[in-house]
Write a structure and sequence with these properties.
There is one protein chain. This protein is mainly α. The chain contains ten helices and no strands. Helix content is 76%, strand content 0%. The radius of gyration is 24 Å and the shape is globular.
Length: 327
């Protein structure tokens, strides 16, 4: 809860992020362009396979089993040739996420008025190097978590130590084996989410104190989460549920539209599908900004101030009461 208003932190953060229209529009446009770059090779390849050899509209809803069987080799070759490009796009998408993180946190930390887009882009450039280092540490932690859950520690401590088996054939029943796999996957999902929360708080601390060391900020953020787990993680968990609920609604709407696709489908349905896709990206970008608004609010309340003047406090045109995250 927001101590001053009784308003839940995650709702206040969501409202604050939604008000930064230029910020989430830039973030949405960037992801959409990267998605377009990933989709174009497949569009061109499939378009070349279809050509004029199929009845117009016959494959508008999906590529049926006959098509996939007839062009199996060509589709496999297309997939192999596009993997490197898709890996590059994925890398750019993650780095773009580090860039937008700097933009969001600059909006929530500084006290200047002015053009939101300019401040967002300037903040992204300012913190990009530091946040890229946080991204690299995050990848290392995720690799470590994967080794813990799917590597030798899981086999030694859980399978052999707790369960008393090593191979799947040794389980008493198939259900027992499947349950253990579910527990394994759920544990990794939990660790994955915790690492992402840690990364958000690490970036927030770097921005709050204008720090330089991603490693030291990471240690301090870990200590904060361990000391105050409910206060730090509850808003992010609530935002995760809000994001998932919104995406589920978009998916249901998209599924309903896709069910109407056919030979008589007009341009309006295609445009509606595109608009829904962009709206879903905008929703994710807005919730992403809300995560940083929430971590900023929580960090300002829990992290002791620096023994030196606030690095953001000397900004001109101060307006401490303008944003939700500022006092």
């Amino acid at each position: 809860m927001d101590r001053d208003s009784g308003f839940p932190v995650f709702l206040g953060a969501l409202v604050t992020a939604a008000r930064q229209r230029a910020a989430w529009c830039i973030a949405t446009l960037g992801v959409a362009l990267l998605a377009l770059a990933a989709a174009l090779p497949w569009y061109g390849g499939v378009d070349a396979l279809v050509g004029h050899r199929y009845e117009p509209g016959a494959l508008i809803a999906n590529l049926d089993e006959t098509f996939r069987a007839e062009h199996r080799d060509a589709l496999d070759a297309l997939g192999a040739s596009s993997r490197a490009a898709l890996a590059g796009v994925a890398l750019l998408a993650m780095l773009f996420g580090a860039f937008t993180a700097g933009g969001w946190l600059t909006l929530f930390h500084d006290r200047r008025r002015g053009d939101v887009a300019r401040r967002f882009l300037g903040g992204g450039a300012r913190f990009f190097g530091r946040f890229a280092r946080v991204w690299f540490l995050t990848l290392l932690l995720l690799v470590f978590c994967g080794w813990l859950v799917y590597g030798d520690p899981w086999i030694t401590l859980v399978k052999e130590g707790l369960v008393g088996v090593r191979d799947a054939e040794e389980f008493v029943s198939e259900r027992s084996a499947v349950t253990l796999v579910w527990v394994q996957d759920a544990l990794y999902a939990l660790l994955f989410a915790l690492v992402l929360c840690w990364a958000d708080y690490t970036r927030t601390r770097l921005a709050l104190h204008d720090g330089r060391s991603a490693f030291w900020a990471g240690l301090e953020s870990l200590a904060l989460i361990v000391a105050r787990p409910v206060r730090t993680l509850a808003p992010l968990a609530a935002l995760l549920l809000v994001e998932a609920g919104g995406l589920w609604l978009f998916a249901r709407s998209q599924g309903a539209l896709e069910a109407t696709l056919g030979e008589e489908t007009g341009l309006g349905t295609i445009v509606a599908l595109g608009v829904l896709g962009l709206a879903a990206l905008a929703w994710r970008a807005c919730v992403r900004g809300a995560r940083y608004a929430a971590t900023t609010r929580t960090s300002r309340e829990l992290v002791p101030p620096l023994p030196i003047p606030d690095p953001w406090g000397a900004a001109p045109d101060a307006d401490p009461g303008k944003n939700f995250v500022l006092r």
